[in-house]
Amino acid sequence: MTTLPLDRTALDPRPDLNMQRGACPALSAPMMTGDGLLARVALTDAVTPAQLAGLCRLALRHGNGILDISARGNLQVRGLTEMSAPLLDTNVRALNLPLREGLAVETPPLAGLDDGEIADPRPLAEAIRQEAHGIEGLAPKMSVVVDGQGTLRLSHLLADIRLIAVRSDGGIRWKLLLGGAEATGRIYGLFGETDAIEAAILLLRELAATGGKARGRDLASGLPLNDGAAPSASLFGIFALSDNLCAAGIGPAFGQAQAEDLIALCTEAERLGVRSLKPALDHSLMFFGPRPACKLLVDFAGRKGFITAPGDPRGNIAACPGSPACSSATIATREIAANAAGEYADLLDGSFKLHITGCPKGCAHPQPAALSLCGTADGVSLIAQGKTTEKPFASVAFADTNASLGRIAELVRAERGEGENSAACLARLGPGRLAAAVMSGRS
Ligand code: SF4
Questions:
Q1: I need a surface site. Which of 43, 119, 278, 402 has the fewest CB within 10 A?
Q2: What residue stretches are annotated with the Nitrite/Sulfite reductase ferredoxin-like domain (predicted)?
C-alpha cells in the first residue's frame, strides 16, 4: 500500500478558493470559473508525452476533461470541484513534473536548442529563479522574461522585468527593460550576465518591499522607451534545431482541448519517437524530436483538427474561454471565433490577432489589438487599435456580432491596397470607417 505524504489536504479537503479576479489560478489555489474550479499547472521545463498524457487522465478523473493552454503557455485543468481540486494537486505532484513554484521566469520555447539565438537564456533564468526564491511580497502576476533573441521571441508578452540578449563591442550583454511588451518597455540598463542577475534581483526586492502593490512599470518613470521589437514568428509549424533535432509547434483551436484528444496526440508522439514537449506561448505545444517524427506528428495533429501551420486562421484569433466556461463572460467567444475563422480567413492573414473576449478583462490578449470584440451586459463592443477597456467605435446587439464582423471583413476586402496586410488596412481605415461599415447593415 502506498502512503501519501501528510499535507493540508489530508486534514481539510477544501482548497484555498481564490475567487479574486486577476489572481493566478495556481495548482494549490484554484480559481472559480463558470464551469467549476480551474487549476493552473505551470512548468519550468519540458516533459515527456507520457507525462502530459498522465496529466490529461487526471483532468478526466478530477475535472471535466477540458484543458486550456494559456497565452503564456501554462496548462489549465477545468471543471474541478472543491473535493477534486486537492486530489488533482496531490496526483499531479506524484507525476514528478518540473512544476514552477513561485516567480514566473520565462524563456522562449526553443531556448538553448536554437542555433539562431544570441545567447542561451536558460542559465540566467535559472539563476534569477533560484535567487528570487526567498523574496516575499511580490505581486501574484509578477513575471520576468529572459529572451536570447532566437527564432521564436517573447517580445509580445508583458513582463515586469525583461532581459534581452544583445551583441555589443564588449561581447554579449543583456538589455534590461521594465514593464510592458518589448516594444513598450523602458530601458533600465545594459549588463553583463552576473550584473544582469544582480540588477534583476535588486529590482525584485524593491518591488517586493511595496508588499505586492508595485509592478515593473512603476519603477520605469523617466526611463527611455525601448526602440521597437522584431515581430514574433508564428509558433505553429516545424523548426530546425541544433543536434539534428526539430521542434513541431501544434495547438488546439483557441487554446482549449479535450483531454482525450491530447492523450491521442501524446500517444502518437511517443509511438513516433518524439522525446519531449513543452506547453508554449500562443496556446501551443512544442514537441521535440527527429525531423521525420515531427513531420509525421504534425500530419497526425492536422488530421485531428489541431492547428499545425502559421496560415491557419484559427491561430490568428485570441479568444478567452467565454460563455459558459467563465462566469464573467456574456458571449460564447469560441463560437464567434470558429465562425470568424471559417468565414473571414482573408481578414485573418496573420498580420494581427483578432481579439474576442467575454468581458473587458481581456484575459486572452492583455495587449492592444487592431480589432477586438468584447462582450458587455448589453451586447458586443467593437474596439480598434486598443485594449478592451478603451472606447469602442461601435456597439451591437449579441445577434449582430457575426454580421458586424462580416461587414468589417468585406470593407477590408474592398479597400485593401496592393501588398497591404489586414493590420495596416484596419489602421488606415480607422474607427470612423469601421463604425460606418458596421452600422451600414443596421436598420
Ligand atoms: S476575459 Fe474572458 S476568461 Fe477572462 S474574465 Fe473575462 S470572460 Fe472570463
A1: 402
A2: 38-82
- Is residue 320 in contact with ligand 1, taking CB distance under 6 Å? yes
- Domain membership of residue 224 (yes or no) is no
Model confidence, pTM? 0.86
Q: Which residue in the block uniquely carries the three cell numbers 564588449?
A: 170
Residue 259 CA to ligand 1 center (angstroms) comes to 22
Residues 374 and 289 in one domain: no
What is the domain-level CATH number for residue 126? 3.30.413.10
User: Is residue 328 within 6 Å of ligand 1 at its C-beta?
Assistant: yes
Structural domain count, the chain: 3
Q: Is residue 22 part of a domain?
A: no
240 & 93 share domain: yes
Euclidean distance between the first and the last CA atom of the chain, given in angstroms as a whole number: 71
Grid cell 521535440 is found at 288
Does ligand 1 come within 6 angstroms of the Cβ of 326? yes
Q: Find the range with the poorest average confidence among 55-64, 173-182, 193-202, 433-442.
A: 433-442
Does 255 contact ligand 1 (Cβ within 6 A)? no
Residue 112 shares a structural domain with residue 61: no
Q: Give Cβ neighbours of residue 70 (< 8 Å, ≥ 6 apart).
A: 40, 76, 255, 283
pLDDT, tens digit, 9 for 90 and up, residues 89-140: 999 999 999 999 889 999 999 999 999 999 999 999 999 999 999 899 999 8
The alpha carbon of 33 and the centre of ligand 1 are apart by a number of angstroms equal to 9
Å from CA of 122 to ligand 1 middle? 32
The residue count for the chain:
443
